[in-house]
Design a protein that fits this description.
This is Cyclic nucleotide-binding domain-containing protein. With about 150 residues, the protein is α+β, with helices and mostly antiparallel strands. About 35% of the residues lie in helices and about 25% in strands. Strands 1-8-3-6 form a four-stranded antiparallel sheet. α3 packs across α4. About 25% of the residues are buried.
């Protein structure tokens, strides 16, 4: 199992576990400009992008939201559904028309609780993505607001 920071579900989960997750997915689409979720809102679902792009952004008081990452084909949109208090830590907006698989967060959490092997695989996959996105956010904020950017220290 490959759970690198940018691993897609296809690469991160064995086929049997992936197929079980896909059994609860439904196909959805979003027009360009639609907000999938707002930072601080209730995180009750997640998506795997089939086509299109979604930007993840961070609210900065007194400024425009900062885009920290742009996601595309086969990438996970949303991880806050997995961790209490199930509140979005970033915002997300479709930057082009998007088609995706949508998953009910509570249903997937229940599946993970019933099957520890599935739960461990999902936690490892999503956890690696969380760590990667937090590092990207940190770097982006340093580039924008630190006196000397995120370059190496003197």
């Amino acid at each position: 199992m490959n759970a690198s920071p940018t691993a897609t579900m296809v690469r991160a989960l064995p086929a049997e576990l992936r197929d079980r997750l896909m059994s609860v997915a439904r196909e959805v689409s979003f027009p360009q400009g639609m907000r999938l979720f707002k930072e601080g809102g209730c995180a009750d679902r997640f998506w795997i992008i089939r086509s299109g792009t979604v930007s993840l952004d961070l609210h900065v008081p007194g400024r425009r939201a900062v885009v920290v990452e742009t996601l595309t084909h086969n990438q996970l949109v949303g991880w806050s559904w997995l961790f209490r208090p199930h509140v979005w830590h970033l915002g997300a907006e479709a930057t082009s028309p998007v088609s995706a698989y949508e998953f009910d967060g509570a249903a997937v959490r229940e599946m993970c609780e019933r099957d520890p092997v599935l739960g461990a695989a999902v936690f490892q996959w999503v956890g690696s993505i969380v760590a990667h996105r937090l590092q990207l956010t940190r770097t982006r904020l340093l580039d924008l607001y630190a006196p000397y950017g995120s370059g190496s220290a003197l």
